[in-house]
Model the fold of this input.
Amino acid sequence: MPERICTVLDFLATFAPLSLAEDWDNVGLLLGDRDQSAERILTCLTLTPDVAEEAIAQQAQLIVSHHPILFKAVQKLTSENSEGHMLLRLIQNGIAVFSPHTAFDSAKSGINQQLAESLGLVDIQPLRPHSESDLAGLGSGRRGYFETPIALGEFLSNVKSLLGISALPYVGDLQRPVSSVAVACGSAGEFLSDAKRAGCDLFLTGETRFHTCLEARDRDIALVMVGHYASERPGVERLAEILQQQFPSLLVWASRVERDPVEWSLL
Done:
């Protein structure tokens, strides 16, 4: 007997409680019927038309998209624009859409925790802890330490290898030793002050503003920007693995057509 979507959503609510999401976010079941049966689930970073067509072609019943759809208020839903056409296609094919977004960023085993662990950090703690007593030990971003400090240049080389990227914008002295590191995936330049306040030598995020780069230089903290996609896509790949382990009777995969829209010329 196939699982129902609500059973999968119940697990996701335990894995990444929606109470962890930022107030401005749009998380949860955003499209579809939670009582529908589910046999195939696709995870992705962003639900774009090509990803939606993949889900339709592969007969998925549920898409878990890290970035939310319907993030801005919608007054009409028609095929006259690309988002409307995509959503209507999903509705016609009975495909539900769930987004955990910042709840997944901040979850105990969420994207930021995974990113910090993959960097080899130890004694990992939330960068911006939640104050609520029932969320003790959880929070936004992460910070941790290297057991043996490494030079910023070596850190950059390790990160490029880890994330499979060829170019890496940064602020700082390549010879500077790095011991304490803060991470916040996605577009999270506002966490620079938290990283500095925590005494971190380096702050890693996906992307940020030019003025945040100036602030990092002025405040003498190294800043590394790995790209929005590179900072979060591994998390949705890992989420597909987690869901597959939790529901072995289902077929779960991370989108095979999704790509980083940003490319770097090395010429």
User: Anything to note?
Assistant: The first strand starts at residue 3 and ends at 4. The chain has nine helices and 13 strands. Residues 75 and 202 are 43 Å apart (CA to CA). The chain has a mean pLDDT of 93.
